């Protein structure tokens, strides 16, 4: 009888632990989430959106050391608002979308930077090149949703985006800001 109780108790503890672990994982609301890239072309700011991406966020403000995030972006979904431009940036000189169809970010550390602010560090991979990055991020509750917003400046040439004649930064600036908004509950 005591062995049966122990098995039942152990099963209940495992189920409780699994429920607690799952409680911190957010269900992402793709309609309220976005990822875009902002850059200058001939000195004029341009913002293009990635229309398909996935995000996994496990967040507990009281246990930031256990929090983590990852994002995978579908490179062929990059939308500059013009079909010809969209095809052009998928070519080898730019994103090389056929060989590198995904870009990704995986956090390695999330820490507090004050009320409603975080400092996030992790690995960013674009076009097969991986770099360690850190950036500030804001978070807040909005109704029943957790909202995470931030921006990450990168150098496109560090990732091989814009090869050959497109290395000329007087046409397309080297600095690109990746802006994101992730909403989930």
How would you characterize this protein structure?
It is a single chain. The chain has a single domain, classed as Lipocalin (Beta Barrel). Helices cover 16% and strands 48% of the residues. The protein starts with a helix and ends with a strand. 20% of the residues are buried.
What characteristics describe this protein?
185 residues, alpha+beta, 10-stranded antiparallel sheet
List the helices and strands and how they pair.
Elements: H1 2-23, E1 34-41, E2 44-50, E3 53-58, E4 68-74, E5 78-79, H2 83-89, E6 102-112, E7 117-126, E8 129-142, E9 145-155, E10 172-184
Antiparallel strand pairs: 1-2, 1-10, 2-5, 3-4, 4-6, 6-7, 7-8, 8-9, 9-10
Give me a quick take on this structure:
By secondary structure, the chain is of the alpha+beta class. It contains 2 helices and 10 strands, in the order H-E-E-E-E-E-H-E-E-E-E-E.
